[in-house]
Specification:
By secondary structure, this protein is α+β, with helices and mostly antiparallel strands. The chain folds into 3 domains: 94 residues, no CATH class; 77 residues, no CATH class; 112 residues, C8orf32 fold (Roll). The chain contains 9 helices and 15 strands. It has a 3-stranded antiparallel beta sheet. Strands 4-9-6 form a 3-stranded antiparallel beta sheet, with no helix packed on it. Strand 14 and strand 15 form a beta hairpin. Helix 6 packs across helix 9. The chain is globular, with a radius of gyration of 22 Å.
Amino acid sequence: MKRTVGQAFGDEYRTLTEYQVVDTLLLEGHAYEADASMARAEARNALRRWVASGLGVRESGGEMLFDPVEAVCFAKAAGLRGDDDYWERNLVGTLRRFVTDLDAAPPSRATVQYRRQFDTSRVPAGETLRLRMPAPLAERYPVLDIRPDLPDQATGHRLSNGRIEARVITTDASTITLGARFEFEVGEAAIDAAPDREIHLRPNEGLVVITPRVAALAQHLRGSSPPDAAVRAFWDYLIGNFTFCPIHYDQVPTDAPLDWVLDRQVYDCQLASALLVALCRASGISGRMIGGNFLYPRSPTNHYWAELWLENSG
């Protein structure tokens, strides 16, 4: 079977204007730039360089439309080849500064305003819907206060651990926004008791799908190593053989998402975490995926990571 490295790009994804793509670049590449106009000019010039070098665009109404995933992947590839220094100079440098700044002055308390917008343009008025959004897990924080921000269309809501659910009746509005204000103390997460192995060794859970190919890879990488060495081998494999970039999830098959990752050799934080968890579960090591947020003051963003349980260390 022929395997194609990377994702497919095409006009169906090219829907954002130059201004909107530049906004995306500014978010992670120029968060510390004091001169906003200079930062925008630099990002715009970089985007135009990439177009001249082959970045795909779609012309519509006299303007160029872009796929932001394609643009970021193109910029990273150009940086890795040494053809353009924008990626290394702006995006890598800024992300590293996010981490060092947060490490130097970690917050003791944080307040996050979270909103999820739902497209209801194709739902007739008068329909009842249940809208959901994630919420922090109570056991992770010594103090946690959650204040839902409900839409006008809401007729009721329920707050459970890790989730907010609202019941709404649709109107002629094309979107409905569900939100909440989370305030919590930040500290080291307590080490949980040993996980339920039945749950954390499941072979099929969301993106964690252990196919024969994933199982064979886990066995190959682990060999006869003990669990801690096996996890290190899995981690080294993930770091050394894939490109980290945004993903078009409509291309990822639901029945074998990790086989797609192995074929295409690309992942984002969610697929990378899923692959690490799958390799561990295939080797009898309990693991789970966690979704949350980076609390970078200048550029907060969502994130996924893996949690693994080793009997000798927790």
